[in-house]
Design a protein that fits this description.
This protein has a single domain, classed as STAS domain (Transcription Regulator spoIIAA). About 40% of the residues lie in helices and about 25% in strands. It is of the alpha/beta class. It has a five-stranded mixed sheet with strand order 1-2-4-6-7.
């Protein structure tokens, strides 16, 4: 699971797998929370570049990290989101909470 996470400064990059289901959503949640507890993170970037499927477990994992970051005074964004994932994010309401970008925005 470690290959999906990279910390640069105060940013945590999370490269999501092709499919986000119950099994890997739980593992990603655990690792992301571990990093958030140990590091001063102000921004979480979810990279959907390879993602083609996400169930409610994935939605819950993203929403949980959003709530954690808002509590900590940080933010969450999504990048490289294809049309299918945009539809899922729109239907779930995620897109009302986190911004979606084509690429990681410059600071």
């Amino acid at each position: 699971m470690g290959q999906y996470f990279e910390v640069k400064g105060t940013t945590l990059f999370v490269k999501l797998p092709a499919e986000i289901d119950h099994h890997n959503a739980e593992a990603m949640r655990t690792e992301a929370d571990r990093i958030l507890q140990r590091s001063l993170i102000r921004l979480v970037v979810f990279d959907f570049g390879e993602t083609v499927f996400m169930d409610s477990s994935g939605i819950g994992m993203i929403m949980g990290r959003y709530k954690t970051m808002r509590f900590m005074g940080g933010n969450v964004i999504a990048v490289h989101v294809n049309e299918r994932m945009r539809r899922i994010m729109k239907l779930s309401g995620i897109c009302k909470l986190i911004d979606i970008y084509d690429e990681v925005p410059e600071k």
